[in-house]
């Protein structure tokens, strides 16, 4: 079995390569060219050439060097053989595709390495802002090589919160505007990284997400001193047969129990991407 440090080094190199691939198509402040948008995989879920090419590159690099590891990616058909592998790559080649398409630099390559249901190494790379977040289990979290930690905020009222763009447009965050200072943002991976870095105090979604959306960010936040759970307070497990979860709550840790209590009466949102 390879060491975590050698796996992390491989992940970091692959993520940087994928970031360079994505940046060939990114147009800051402007929408990408029409030929870049390939199709919509489902409602409000676009696919671009950058997603596809980054996925192919990551698969080639990561599985090419670790052929015995499993593979789970947003842009690759699922293979149940991953369930029997000791270590599994869980990848989102570009989280935040809608922002990427609009020329907004809030997207990221997200790679997590999972063993026995737990992330043990992670990296999240935003190539447009030159931010590279990384972590290993019990090894701390870093941004561009420097240790990071969560914010010291200990009061839920007035906490800074990252919210989903689409959820805010639908009015789902209206009940929380008097409690939090809310900033809309698309990529959940990038949101988790920013909470881990202490720039924001928390983020959450009651809309279904897949493992690749938050696997790497879960370890980053844990290693920076924060906490991630589902709405019922249960910890997140990865490389499950069903990769979709109903909720993700992420905080600096100090706010977690208060957030759980606040959201307890709030119903979960429907899976809108599954609605034709």
Secondary-structure topology with pairs:
Blueprint: H1 4-23, E1 37-42, E2 45-48, H2 49-65, E3 70-73, E4 87-95, H3 97-101, E5 108-115, E6 118-126, E7 131-136, E8 141-143, E9 146-147, E10 160-164, H4 165-169, E11 181-185, H5 188-196, E12 202-205, E13 209-210, H6 211-223, E14 227-229, E15 244-245, E16 248-251, H7 256-263
Helix pairs in contact: 1-2, 5-6
Kindly provide the name of the CATH class of the largest domain. Answer: Alpha Beta
Helix/strand/pairing class, anyone? alpha+beta
Q: What is the overall silhouette? A: globular
Number of helices: 7
* Proportion in helices: 25-40%
Name the CATH superfamily classification of the largest domain. Fructose-1,6-Bisphosphatase, subunit A, domain 1
How much strand content do the residues show?
25-35%
Order of helices and strands: HEEHEEHEEEEEEHEHEEHEEEH
Report on the biggest sheet: 7 strands, mixed
CATH topology of the largest domain: Fructose-1,6-Bisphosphatase, Chain A, domain 1
Instruction: Quote the average pLDDT.
Output: 95
Task: Work out the count of structural domains.
Answer: 2
Q: Quickly give the CATH architecture of the largest domain.
A: 2-Layer Sandwich
Terminal residue distance: 44 Å
Numbering strands along the chain, what is their spatial order in the largest sheet? 3-4-5-6-7-8-9
Radius of gyration: 17 Å
Low-confidence stretches: none
User: How many beta strands in the DSSP annotation?
Assistant: 16
